Fold these 3 entries.
Entry 1:
Amino acid sequence: EVFKARDKKNPKKFVAMKKVLMDNEKEG
């Protein structure tokens, strides 16, 4: 599953990220 997420370095920029990668980032 892929969704649009805000880039931490560029809040105005939206990037497509996989939900799995985002979940791992939250856990870490």
Note: The chain has one domain: 1-28.
Entry 2:
Amino acid sequence: MNKFLKSAYFKALLVVSAIAVVMLGKEVAGFVLFLNIIGFVLIACKETAVSFLPFMLACTFVVKCYDSFSLFAPLWWAYIFPLCAVAFHFIYYRKEHRFAIGQSFYGIIAVAVAVTLGGIGKISAAEYFSPMALYYVFGLGIGMAGIYLLLKSSFIEYNGYSSRKNFIYDMYIIGLFACFMILHHYAINFRTTLLEHKPANIQWSNNISTILMLAMPVPLFFTKKHFAHIFSSLLIYACAVLSDSRAGLILGTVEMIICLIPFIGFGRSRARMMIRFAFVICSAVAGYFILSKIWSLLYSENFIRDNEARVKLIYRAIDDFRGSPIFGIGLGNRANTDIYPSSVMGTICWYHMMIPQIFGSMGVVGVLGYGYQLVTRFILVLRKRSAEAITLGLSYFGLFLMSQVNPGEFCPLPYALVATLIFVLVESCENAHKKPTEEES
């Protein structure tokens, strides 16, 4: 059983199941199914990394559920088995797990201090101790530090089984699955799209773009084996453009160009030639899409408007920082509802942009905490400089870009967890100057 769960056959079965969920439009039922699969995997398999693919597949197809909290909170009974499985996994397989602390842990602690102290002296006790505020403060802070320790102890090498390679393979699959979701949406809305000559209205565009940008660099890792993988990255990029997300259009282009640069030197000469060729084609296509899209949207006053909520939220964040420069107004503060009212349950009052969220909600303490985390993560990737470390670092870069215009990393599950996992894996990468073994090459 353990061998099957780590095999390509099990991964294929998961993907087929996820595709069926999307095609049937049964995301809630699929979520319950995948929760049980995750629980079974954690009980049957000591390698925690095997549970990552079903977890991310579920997180990907549920982005179609807009008011997810209202849909999934009543399903409390469905969480009992997987939560018990998590406890069983880390207790029963505890001899296989060794707690350790790496470089990225200290950045998590810095952020934990920032989110915990955020709003002190400004936020009311009722807002600070509200269930949703506590979820985000705990999930982004002390809770994420605990998750780091669990991931650090379990995402390790077992008799040739590489958690890093498993993550990279799984993110490749997730990227292609996200592409399927975009293309499937266009297929079922083909008539509307064809008649109106515009992308189909995708309400979940920013979330799916975030997942696409997490996966975009991953196929490039495999170009050292075969140049054809470049086209998978281009497909992921194309779907980010087609997602009807402005961030996917602009920031996806930025990521695609930056991702191609370090991989030009990888692989054989033919692969390098194809990457250069793809770089030119991608740049030309991106330039056409961006210039034409920006021209039409900007001059129709639809691209960025002075009365747009995010523009107002930037000014609000500046005012909030001025009013409480040390600790900000706190994550649980509800003062922004006059600008961005939301009927969606389970959310806090976002600035919808990472940088304003940091200095508006947490002040100078937040800037120092998140700044320290970002710098230590960047230094960690630079120190490793291996193909795996660069791939993982660029995957996080995609999430970081999307977080500038979306809650992104301020969502404990899945994005903050995935970011934490990425740097747990980067910590385990060999340094670039170390000669790989025959098995690793």
Note: Residues 93 and 176 are 32 Å apart (CA to CA).
Entry 3:
Amino acid sequence: MSELWNLLDELEAELRRLDHWSDVPPSREALASTQPFAVDTLSLPEWLQWVYLQRLRALLEAGRELPSGALVKPYAEEYFAQSQEPVGELIVIIDRIDAQLGRP
């Protein structure tokens, strides 16, 4: 699991490098979304920071079972498809996390 910890740290660092990190959390209502990736209330970078990273780190810290078979990479590729941002490394990190969590 140390590899996953490292990947989560890499994901945070890459979000920061791309200036997609915020010190201000989304509203409680936005975080309560029941849609996949909270697509109705959060941007993908917000979801990665405030939902994905936090939940995975909390599960790791508690020694709980990690989710398996969930793929974030396809959504990330779609989300950034029209972007001019250099997100290649971000996509690679997300893909590596998907692999650690076990692809379906």
Note: The first helix runs from residue 2 to 17.
